[in-house]
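re: ur msg from earlier - yeah i can do the uridine-5'-diphosphate-xylopyranose complex, just paste it... oh wait u already did. ok heres what im feeding in:
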Amino acid sequence: MASIAVIGLGPTGLATGVALASGGHRVLGVDIDSNRIERIQNANPPFHEAGLKPALRRVIRVGRFRVANVFEPMVSEAEFVFLCVGTPSRDDGSMDDGALKTAATSVAKAAIDKRRRTLVVKSTVVPGTTETVIRPILDSSGAPFRIAVNPEFLREGKALADTLHPDRIVIGAGDSVTAKRIRALYRPAKCPVYLTTLRTAEMIKYATNGFLATKVAFANELANLCDVFGVSYDEVHRGLALDPRINPRFLIPGVGFGGSCFPKDIRALAVAGQAHGYDPSLLRAILTQNDQQFLRAVELLESELGSLRAKRIALLGLAFKGGTDDVRESRAVPIAKALKERGAVVIGYDPVATTNFHKAVPDVVIATSIEEALKDADGCIVQADWPAFAKLSAADFLKPMAAPVVVDGRRILKPNRMKGVRLRRIG
Ligand code: UDX
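and the outut:
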């Protein structure tokens, strides 16, 4: 069993650390945020992730998971160092590698014993970053590091399950010994393992997120066109899926994609491509399509209700999707703003994301239940695919609302259970 330092305890770092500790390794977590460290030490995860709390409690209890807000002695005790810090968007859309450089510098300083260690880059970084940014920082320390890139493919809300049961593992490394050492950490995971170069592994992560986002943007465009031509998207989707070359998953139209990955990764890839003299017009179009898609939900409400001035609109789902409390790039933010600009009173509800949403958009009234949000509302937009929303039926809307108009922005409500409700969907 190995000793592994995990730097950065956001959803990726914490899920990776807990999964590796559950697999029998000794994990030493580092994060510069003291509040986060305190919560993790008390087995109280700082964000909503299914199954994380009991798994965290277990690995802390058996002494396989320790955390601190300093790099020492965590790094010096470790054979492997996983870099899991965030790479957010700068204002121009480019990847902000500030936290990455700071973390790499701290790792290099902490590796004072000059023992050979393996540094694994899990943060999403544009191709070339590990070689041109991280390697020089590590080399300057004089400590002998092996370097690898091992992108994560975790879905928020399912991060722990996705780490424990990956459907593929991609490892980019300069040499096969390093790749095999990292592969061994993930045993007994039974899934394809793809060994490649650093740069290719970095690119595979962007390729995956880019393609998935493209599918969503395509589904949204298609659904908008279905509306124009008076055709049912569901039927078109069924017909589309008959082509064996087209995988029907990830083609659910709605109000657009959000979250901490798709928007920022596509922006970063587009800006990096541009910086290298290539104009990524398709990526730019995907971002434009997605930036505008949320308006369709607002327009559907207007087409049913007329002016939204002084109308009460319930916004169900404030997180960027169901299963998480993350509101980063949540489509609920532009939807709420657009509704307010039109003079509507917005009442938001989410099973777990209300606190985070309130910080992002303070002037939205927050309800503590679905019923409270819907009470006396003129209209409703379902923005996130929480299971509790998928279970709603006509009675849930007809009781609290006089003449319910509901826009299903995630295609989760069952039309055949909505008798008496004016249900609108995109496409
Ligand atoms: C994504 C990738 O799935 C994951 O592999 C990667 O590591 C991180 O980015 P995540 O951001 O957690 O994961 O969410 P995901 O479930 O992929 O959904 C992203 C967004 O697309 C959400 O806003 C979701 O509502 C939207 N979406 C997804 C659609 O609108 N339609 C779909 O068919 C699928």
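cool cool. The first strand starts at residue 3 and ends at 7. ping me if u need the other ligands too
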